[in-house]
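Most newcomers find our protein records easier to grasp once they have seen one. To make this concrete, we reproduce a full record directly below:

…
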Amino acid sequence: MTTLLLIALKVAVGVLILAIGLGSTFADLLYIWRRPALLLRSLLAMYVLVPLAAVLLVSLLPLGTAVKAALLVLAVSAGAPLLPRKLGALGSDAYVFSLVVLSSLLAIVLVPAWLALAGNAFGVAAELEPSAVASVIAKSFLLPLLVGLVLRKLFPALAERFADRLMAAAGLVLAGSALILLATHWQVFMEMQNIGMLSLVLLLLAALAIGHAMGGPAADDRTALAIACATRHVGLAVLVASSFPGPKTTVLIAAYIVASAAVSIPYLKWRRAVA
């Protein structure tokens, strides 16, 4: 059952990426490169400040090994392929798309490096080769993205029609798989206790605050970067979690999906209310 649910999670992520490609253009890829200040702030927030926040939480809170591993896995698994699904029609589509592509490519090098550095420091090290990360990103991100972009180029009206529907369907599968995974391993979830769930929520709140602060003067950019910092690459996180023995870390990744929705949805409602 667990294996099938993990496959469902990965397939849902792939379909979401396909839908992102259907709703984007090749020209959108260059948006963030034309804004070096925004590029620098985005990378600093996602790949330096959020992982440091996780390291701080792991250092200060009395957490079990599985929860420590989950926090570190989530902190380093940047890439945010689910970002467009969460932001919807916020008005920053090009920034969101270019950030998703850039951060996913950088994850090939930065995820193994951060995991080795932080994992060894806290006794939860996992060996992960850059080639394994590259393989996951190529299969779960680059391939469906390219297919979506090509279909958008060939059939623009059809792509526009089905992009949102695919996103919605894949989002439901993703959330449903995470909830069933938690229900199947409820005893692992209960072992987290309050401090474990609190640590996940604190990491998400810290990530939102970091992205909001680093997003710059444009309100839409602040909102987009905040959600990007709080949104992890689920396929990548599952790969990293599978390098730890037992299902605990993977189940905690599913708990993150639920906690992420609980934290990010109120934030988005607030941002839209003040816009």
